[in-house]
Amino acid sequence: MRDLVNQPRPQGTPSIAPDSGRPLRPTDEETAAAADLLRLAAFAANIGLWDFDAHSGVLTANGVFRSLHGLAADQKFEEEEFRKCIHPEDRARVEAALVALGTNETTDRLDIEFRVVRRDDGAVRTLRSSGARIPGGAAESQRFVGITLDVTSSKLAEQHLREASQHDALTGLPGRGLLFEYCSHLLAMAQRTRSSGAMLFIDLDRFKPINDSHGHGVGDQVLQQVAKRLLSCLRQEDIVGRLGGDEFVVAIPHPDDRYGPATVAKHVIAALEQPFYVDNLQLHLSASIGISLYPRHGNDLDSLLKAADHAMYLAKEGGRSRYQFFNSQDEGNGAAEMQIESLLREALDLESLQLVYQPVVDLQSGMTVGAEALLRLPLKGGDVMTPDVFLPVAESTGLINRLGEWVLAEVGRQHARWCQAGLPGMSVSVNVAPQQFRQRKFVAQLADSLKKSGMDPCCLQIEIRESTVLEDVPQALVALEQIRQLGVQVALDDFGTGFSSIGLLSSLPVDKLKIDRVFVQSIGHDAHSQTIADSVLALGRTLNLKVVGEGIESESVYSYLLEHGCNQAQGYYFSKPISAGEFERWCKQEQSHAQSVH
Ligand code: C2E
Ligand code: MG
Ligand code: MG
Fold first, then answer.
1. 398 and 260 in a common domain
2. How far, in Å, from the CA of 374 to the mean position of ligand 1?
3. pLDDT tens, residue by residue, 315-335
4. Which pLDDT does position 230 carry in this prediction?
5. Total Cβ atoms within 10 A of residue 467
6. HEC string of 23-67?
7. 494 CB within 6 A, ligand 1
8. CA-nearest residue, atom 7 of ligand 1
9. 387 preceded by cis ω (within 30°)?
10. Which of 43, 166, 401, 597 is packed most tightly, with the most Cβ within 10 A?
């Protein structure tokens, strides 16, 4: 990007004398004074000025434009750098608009609003760019000049105004429409990040008699106090709204260990059991609460609300002032879930969880270079439960953080045992759940477990799903940077279609991409999936990241990945996940075989 204010004025844009309409060439002093005035005015009003050649893609801008993107005003940056600042969700739209300027000659104006993730502090701001095609000869018809403003505060004010009109006038809580809008956002986010959530349907018991015997004025004041008490039971990120009458809904994103839906329901019941005072009256209420869980009880808002409503009805039937998880036709669900929860708690308390290890093979040398630790919940009779069954419960109950902590500690202990047994330098991969990664204390926890076990940080690798990073890029950037400083490696797990831009990926401090096994397993069968696997391999080469193929079950897929430059591999073709002892024997056998060959 070039510096706008120091650019010579392009030929062919004549200035006009104000009184005569006659084109005049200004003197050099006049030009310099005008440029200076423009520079100062733009600086004072915080206006980014830009000049964009849609034909060549060359962007020229002033210092304010750069600082609006979180770059030092005098820092040079390329167009690619500018694109990297655009919020991932807005990038495709902005790029399409820029391409349209160059390809569609009837597009004479650019008016676009988009978010940027500032490069200096990671803050998200909303910018508005407006400009127009500069008329002139054919050579200049691709030239657009305009300004960029930071409109974050007016956007926020607009949003507050809109939201205020959608709030329930009596309690100040979001009304039905806004509540559904918020919940849809939460749901979309949970779907994107494969995380969990809970919905509480709260209905007041004995409210109607208060209204009937003391009048609506008193009833209204009670509802206002109820709203306040509900708010006091919740975290800031939870949502509570009034559906109407004496019905309220609470949505809990990312419930965690100490803050699961049952705990919230207990707090709400306890808070509403306290007497209400209106004028000289002392009034008593209670609440019946139905709970539904995402994704277990439904994938859309309607089903979750219906499930919670149904459960609330059962809670009322069961004696009021109580809560009930959704537990309808396939009542097995709720019960099974509670059983899994208690098995998990027991296994955590008794430290009876198990890790199995799947060997990771270097494709070039054919040697095992490490293992991925995979969690198992042992059951009576020697069976084990796999993560696809217990992880959703661990996430919705918040137990996932305790599980994650245990896994890190156990991997540290196991690594030390392997070192003692003569297997130094093995790298071990640990999966980190989205909820765990989002915790502020995660990096400290990681550092602590490394310290306790004495494990060499470069032998530890954490695996985070691609979707977890995309959910909150600025937060992920900060956390990943800190993890990298610890010396721990990072792999993006289940990698495939999430990243729309190489720019964003290249700015992430990660070491490996693990191709989602869905795509690996389709190699040779499904052209579309194969193209995705190929693109991940190409991305890895371009960005100098190792690529791991997982879920390899056949010779043909193995050969394909080897020929296409994949670095490492995992899959039943080499070995299923095995116990720590079996892994040790596996490596030793391999070592003695290698020695006998040499
Ligand atoms: P993942 O990290 O993608 O792990 C790979 C999964 O693929 C493992 O399933 C593994 O057993 C399976 N797999 C490996 N090779 C093959 C193959 O050739 N064919 C087939 N069909 N499957 C193969 P697993 O152990 O059931 O784990 C499933 C997921 O659960 C993991 O996916 C990971 O996301 C999660 N998970 C496992 N352990 C943990 C843990 O300790 N913490 C967290 N947060 N998540 C975990
Ligand atoms: Mg994994
Ligand atoms: Mg995976």
1. no
2. 6
3. 887 677 888 888 755 444 556
4. 97
5. 19
6. EECCCHHHHHHHHHHHHHHHHHCCCEEEEEECCCCEEEECHHHHH
7. yes
8. 551
9. no
10. 401
Residue 432: inside a domain: yes
Which of 431, 435, 576 best tests ligand 1's pocket when mutated (most atoms within 8 Å of CB)? 431
Per the model's pLDDT, the better-predicted residue between 12 and 505 turns out to be 505
The pLDDT of residue 82 is above 60: yes
Closest CA to 198 of 245, 268, 144, 275: 268
Cα 569 to ligand 2 centroid, rounded to whole Å: 12
Number of separate domains in the chain: 3
pLDDT greater than 80 at residue 516: yes
Range in 196-205, 266-275, 526-535 with the lowest mean pLDDT: 526-535
Closest ligand to the CA of 194: 1
Nearest CA to ligand 1 atom 27: 387
The answer, yes or no, to whether any atom of ligand 1 lies below 6 A from the CB of 358, is yes
Which atom of ligand 1 is nearest to 494's Cα? 3
Q: What is the pLDDT of residue 551?
A: 94
Tell me which residue range forms the domain holding 408.
351-597
User: Does 577 sit in the ligand 1 pocket, CB within 6 Å?
Assistant: yes
CATH of the domain at 90: 3.30.450.20
214 and 253 share one domain: yes
Percent of residues, the chain, with pLDDT higher than 90: 49
Give the span between the Cα atoms of 395 and 401, in whole angstroms. Answer: 8
The amino acid sitting at 412 is G
Spatial distance between the Cα atoms of 535 and 529, rounded to a whole number of angstroms: 10
Rounded Cα–Cα distance for residues 81 and 72 (Å): 13
386 lines ligand 1 (CB under 6 A): yes
On whether residue 485 sits in a domain, the answer given is: yes
Q: What is the pLDDT of residue 8?
A: 44
pTM of the model: 0.55
Let me know if residue 65 belongs to a domain.
yes
Task: Tell me the per-residue pLDDT of 245-279, one tens digit each, with 9 for 90 and over.
Answer: 999 999 999 887 667 898 899 999 999 989 999 98
pLDDT at 200 over 60: yes
With a 6 Å cutoff on the Cβ, whether 408 touches ligand 1 is no
- Domain shared by 150 and 174, yes or no: no
Same domain (yes/no): 151, 212: no
Distance, CA 372 to ligand 3 centroid (Å)?
Answer: 10
Q: What is the CATH number of the domain that holds 195?
A: 3.30.70.270
Q: Which atom of ligand 1 is nearest to the CA of 516?
A: 3
Whole-angstrom Cα distance, residue 34 to residue 26?
10
pLDDT over threshold 50, residue 18:
no
Residue 239 shares a structural domain with residue 381:
no
130, 156, 182 — which closes off a domain? 156
- Which residues are placed with Cβ below 5 angstroms of ligand 3, an ion? 493-494
Could you tell me the pLDDT band of residue 23, with boundaries at 50, 70 and 90? low
Ligand 1 atom with the smallest distance to the CA of 400 is 44
**Residue 59, in any domain of the structure:** yes
Considering the domain architecture, whether residues 86 and 10 belong to the same structural domain is answered as yes
Which pLDDT tens digit goes with each residue over 287-318? 999 999 998 888 899 899 999 998 998 888 76
* Ligand of minimum distance to the alpha carbon of 490: 2
One domain, residues 120 and 187: no
* Residue 2 confidence (pLDDT) above 70: no
Mark whether 220 and 316 lie in a shared domain. yes
Instruction: State the alpha helices, DSSP H only, in 421-459.
Output: 434-438, 442-453
CATH number of the domain residue 591 falls in: 3.20.20.450
CA distance 132 to 51: 10
What is the whole-number distance in angstroms between the Cα of residue 14 and the centre of ligand 1?
67
Domain end: 287, 311, 326, which one? 326
> Number of C-alpha atoms within 13 angstroms, CB side, residue 260?
18
